[in-house]
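Support reply, case 0932

Customer input (verbatim):
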Amino acid sequence: MARHYPPLNALLFFITAARTLSFTRTAEELFVTRSAVSRQIKGLEDFLGTSLFKRAKSGLELTPSGVSYSNALSLCFADIKLATDAILGCEGDGKFKLGLSATFNSTWLIGRLNRLHDLHPELAVAFVTNALDTTEESVDFSSGEMDAAVRLGTGSWPGCQSDKLLDVHIQLVCAPELLTAARTGLSLPEIEQHPWLGYKHLPELWPNWLAKAGGDASAFARKRVMAFDNVAVAVQAAVDGLGIIPMYRPLVDPLLDSGKLVVAHEFTMLCDKAYYFVCPTSYATHKPTVMFRKWILAEAEEFMRRRPALHCVHDP
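Our regenerated output:
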């Protein structure tokens, strides 16, 4: 039996709510009531058989399914916007395709996209996402798959323009219930008494952190680390209280702010890698890239200016 398309009007409601992270603002933009937005989203969730949004202390959040779906739909809606602008004779600036990890998008970028939309409503942004942050990720722009990328690395990509966005720190975090009452963190010996979580593609995080924090270097060899090949699954395991996990700051900051995770130890390790905005050296001839680059660099600068100082040492 042929599968039906999802309700197309509901997709517009969803993609708008995914950008604004607010049913109220979505209603204002689409000139409908808030209850109409809720009904459309609920209908789409029923059709898909999964939740797309969840309520949190900090407000509305996308679920992992919601993040994945909105990323995929961003390509479709960017094309629809361009096609519509062409028919209407509007002066659009074209589609901007950004390559980045799903984790970076869902934790740091997505909550800022509404400010971009307010500043440049004419810009059609589409995301090309992948699961992991690695320095080996391609930044070959010749295929046209993406116009620019956010990458974790040292800033050296041959033939590319790269601008540092965010420094990255490693800090141990865990679910609140793993800390005893009135405690703000665990000692190094206490950390060893808890289960450890990690990532298959980043096996060096635990031993590097222990070495810099002054912990027992042999503890890692004795310890069985439950490693995951999916970052979202690893983070959810930590939220569910299954163990302590090293995570990147600032990517973990929203979970710390919401109280879903807490700092397990105050020591943070500054990585030699940072997040960079990477684009072709010829980016100045592509107006959408120029616009997005200026905006994201300003957002990152403001974030770093407001970010509290972290107690850390550099990881060479």
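We compared this against your earlier run and they match. Two observations from our side: Residues 55 and 107 are 15 Å apart (CA to CA). DSSP finds twelve helices and eleven strands in the chain. Please reopen the case if you see a mismatch on your end.
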